[in-house]
Amino acid sequence: MGAGRTAAVLAALGVLSVCEASGSRPVAEGEAGGAVEWAEPWDGAVFRPPSALGAVGVARGPGTPRPGSGEAVDLPVLLWWSPGLFPHFPGDSERIECARGACVASRDRRVRGDSRTRALLFYGTDFRASEAPLPRLAHQSWALLHEESPLNNFLLSHSPGIRLFNLTATFSRHSDYPLPLQWLPGTAYLRRAAPPLPERADWRRRGYAPLLYLQSHCDVPADRDRYVRELMRYIPVDSYGKCLKNRELPTPRLQDTATATTEDPELLAFLSRYKFHLALENAICDDYMTEKLWRPMHLGAVPVYRGSPSVRDWVPNNHSIILIDDFESPQKLAEFIDFLDKNDEEYMKYLAYKQPGGITNQFLLDSLKQREWGVNDPLLPNYLNGFECFVCDHELARLDAEKAYAASPGDIPVLEPHIAQPSHMDCPVPTPGFGSVEDIPENDSRSLILAINHCICLRFLWPFRER
Ligand SMILES: *[C@@H]1O[C@H](CO)[C@@H](O)[C@H](O)[C@H]1NC(C)=O
Ligand SMILES: *[C@@H]1O[C@H](CO)[C@@H](O)[C@H](O)[C@H]1NC(C)=O
Ligand SMILES: *[C@@H]1O[C@H](CO)[C@@H](O)[C@H](O)[C@H]1NC(C)=O
Questions:
Q1: Closest C-alpha residue for ligand 1 atom 11
Q2: Which residue from 94, 137, 96 is spatially nearest to 118, judged by alpha carbons?
Q3: Tell me, which fold does domain 187-368 have in CATH?
Q4: Which end of the chain has fewer CB atoms at under 10 Å, N or C?
């Protein structure tokens, strides 16, 4: 199909105008204000240094030794291309010590052309193809940190987008530096005792619904609000966030999202009054799981979950969450929740993993044990510094391999390029949360429609851009 004809077909579908209007961030408007919002992971500031740090510190060239840090002249340099993510303070460069040796981490873009600058590090949410440092230098690896969902950058869920990079740290288990458990501090977090059932029964008698919904980021491509709205027709749901709100949090302090964060103990105590929490991710990608999955378990509630299609691989045992997609309709799901709500013995089976030996998923246990970074763990690096060292070690190994090859080219094979794969960001085109696309009223689920169009549009346009 020629480019002209494709354009005509797309125009007929009304797709081209959407592409142009939406740029590379089709659904970002919802977050424009950047307001703190308890229900969304990327506002949690798990590792992001406050932006004020960016302005502080004395500029220091990467070759300049830091006091007490020894000579840094010949060390490989890792350049953080994304502003604001540089995980060191103060200054613009820092010697880092990793398993294989040392590197210099820098955010001074002037070193970009230096032969010692071996890797450029990008943050996925900020990455714009049009702002990429081109031409690309043959001796440099590109490393991508993108732990968020594609909601924040659809470009990277497309094969040519992800394949721009050599190394990745994403939510996917297939990534070079995998972060699927980025929201799970550890098994103790899951094992925390649940509130006694009579206490919950008491709240139910006082008019609480069996189900909680706490969501303030409305109208996302995963189309969760339409599903929940339909579910509400068959079972009571108490909704406290901006989306489908039908109740107020009990105190003004909790209502104010600027003072009560997701981890606020008073908020958590309140949420734990509910037996079931609706837990729907903002995008559906393999291995993309957030605190929406783990927090209800921590609080002793049963997550009613839609998100990573492979979530079963990660949960503590085979009877610990309710998967929305196991039910043919919101009505059937409502009937099942109602059954569990009235049947304590069946309900408690969902919390059996809290008993000694109850976490039987060996894959989960092994994955937690093997990861080298921690979640708010003072004894372990966070994954930002962890990934930086991973890249440093990779580059030191690559340098050694290059040297070995240069010394005896006949005996040693040429180093194969290492290129990121689409499986590192596996997010299919979004589908309606409920019903079919044709049935969605025009004034509803705008971001789902935009996302679908945007995906179709990237798919069509990439081949032509590549040439
Ligand atoms: C779930 O685990 C239990 C106990 O390990 C086992 O008996 C049961 O067969 C498993 N069920 C499924 C569906 O895997
Ligand atoms: C990095 O990836 C690009 C493709 O995006 C590839 O051309 C290049 O050879 C790779 N470099 C290394 C060092 O693997
Ligand atoms: C869409 O419009 C219909 C008819 O005006 C209205 O009843 C419905 O509430 C609207 N839906 C949304 C999601 O705004």
A1: 318
A2: 137
A3: Rossmann fold (3.40.50)
A4: C
